[in-house]
Amino acid sequence: MVGTWMDEIRSDSTYDYASDWHWVTIPDGMTYDQTEKNPNGDVIMTIERLILELKSKQLSPTQEIAHLKMLVHLVEDIHQPLHVGREGDQGGNSIKLKWFGSNSNLHSVWDSNMIDGTRLSYTELAVSLGTPDKITVEGWQRATVREWATESMSFRPQVYDIGNGNLSYQYSYRYFSIAKQRLLQAGVRLAGILNEIYG
Ligand SMILES: [Zn+2]
Questions:
Q1: Mean pLDDT, to the nearest integer, of 95-105?
Q2: Measured in angstroms, how far is the CA atom of residue 12 from the centroid of ligand 1?
Q3: Measured in angstroms, how far is the CA atom of residue 2 from the centroid of ligand 1?
Q4: 92-198, superfamily in CATH?
């Protein structure tokens, strides 16, 4: 329920300052450190800041609640490969295509179309992701926020494998496993961060 709050407030102009916090652009072949930083913020610097501020225990209860709601959302966003975008196509939003014959774009395919296509409830989807073993969990939780972003970039060859732009079963069959893996990694890493702050 709190996970979608940051998308809901996008229609409220008092939160315009946070509109660039959902994503980051890292051109092919570059690292985040080599990029020119967005003065409005990006998903990497925002997650790093939220974690530091939550650990500082200096926040008011109202601020702490907002920080946690943003953290839940952004840890998931950064694992969606197209929230770490290449240059020039707005994280796939400007790549228009057909999804089962209806107008969509590449970003929406990864944000929602493939997931909605399963027709699973949130709980059913979560169960379908399975449970990673302890060694895997520890490895995932050791990675840094910047490494999560590099992982998202590494899926570009698959994500952009869209042929003539008429996507349907074949694309999901090939690549939905990536979306599931990213959801699972994001959940495990969010749990790790919450344990670090409150455990
Ligand atoms: Zn978002």
A1: 98
A2: 14
A3: 12
A4: P1 Nuclease (1.10.575.10)
